Amino acid sequence: MTTGSQEAAQLLAGAKRLVVKVGSSLVAGGEIFRHDGLAGDLASWPQSLVLISSGAVALGHRAAPQLSKTTLVERQALSAIGQPLLMARWEQALGGANARTAQVLLTPDVTDDPQRRDNARATLETVLQAGLLPVVNENDTVATDELRYGDNDRLAAQTAALVGADVLVLLSDVDGYFAADPNKDPGAAHWPVIPPAVLADPAAHVPEDKSALGTGGMRSKMEAARLAVEAGIPAIIASGRGRGPLKALARGEVRASVALLP
C-alpha cells in the first residue's frame, strides 16, 4: 500500500459516518450505477452514509439537448428535468440491493441560517435512522448566481459538518491530487498527503480546471477538503471508477490523496 492508500484505509476503518460525493463525470459515465460499481458499495456499506450526487444538469441536457447550459435559467430548467432522472438512477441502482433512497435538496441559506440548518440536520438524521440513504444535491432550480454553493464539492463539505461526519470522501474520475493535470502530463507527481500549504490556499496552488460536465474540478475539491479540515473532518480524494471503488479504498488497494487534520 502507498502512503495515501494506507491513510485512506485507516480513516475509513475508524469512521462511523461518511459523506461521499460523486461528480457529474461519474454520473454521466454510468458505471457507478452497476451492482459491482459504487452503487453496490453504498448499498452494503455497514456504517452511516450520506451521498452527495451531482449530475442533474448533465442528465437533463441528455433529455433536452435543445437547451444549452450557458444561461442560468437554462441550467435551472435542465436541473428540473434531470433531478428526477438522477434520483431514478440511484433508486434503481440501490433498490436492487434492497437499499432505499431519500432526496434532500439544499441551498446555502439552509446551512447558513441556524433554524434551517437545524431542520436540515434533523431531516437527515431521521432519514438515516429509518435506514435510508439520503441523496443530497443543490437545489439548482431556485438557486441564483448570487446565492448558491457553486459546486457540490463545497456542498459536500458543508453537509459533512452538518451531520457530524467522521470522513469526507470526494470521488471523481482522477485518483487524487497531482502536481499537474495528469491528463496533460502523464508524468505528473501524485501527492498521497496533500501539503498543508496547498490545503491552506488552494487558489494559489491549484489551477482552475472545471469539468466539461459539471462546475467543479480539483481546485473545488481542495477547497472542500480545506473546509472539511477546518471543521475537524479529514478528507479523501480518490477515483470512483472501477469495481467496488469505495471498498477498494477501504482495503488500501487504490491510490488516493488525503487531507489530514493538523
Automatic annotation (TrEMBL):
* One Pfam family named in its UniProt record: AA_kinase
Can the keyword Transferase be found in this entry's annotation? yes
| Sorted UniProt keywords | Amino-acid biosynthesis, ATP-binding, Cytoplasm, Kinase, Nucleotide-binding, Proline biosynthesis, Transferase
* Residues engaged in binding substrate: S54, D140, N152
Entry keyword annotation includes Amino-acid biosynthesis: yes
User: Where does this one sit in the cell?
Assistant: Cytoplasm
Which enzyme class? transferase
Q: Which reaction does it catalyse?
A: L-glutamate + ATP = L-glutamyl 5-phosphate + ADP
Q: Name one GO molecular function term.
A: glutamate 5-kinase activity
Binding-site list for ATP: K21, S172, D173, T215, G216, G217, M218, R219, S220, K221
Q: Which domain of life is it from?
A: Bacteria
Q: Which NCBIfam families match?
A: proB (TIGR01027)
Q: What does this protein do?
A: Catalyzes the transfer of a phosphate group to glutamate to form L-glutamate 5-phosphate.
Q: Family per UniProt? A: Belongs to the glutamate 5-kinase family.
Q: PANTHER family in the record, alphabetically?
A: GLUTAMATE 5-KINASE (PTHR43654), ISOPENTENYL PHOSPHATE KINASE (PTHR43654:SF1)
**Which HAMAP family does the entry mention?**
ProB (MF_00456)
Name of protein: Glutamate 5-kinase
Q: What is the lineage of its organism?
A: Bacteria, Pseudomonadati, Pseudomonadota, Alphaproteobacteria, Parvularculales
Q: Which gene encodes it?
A: proB
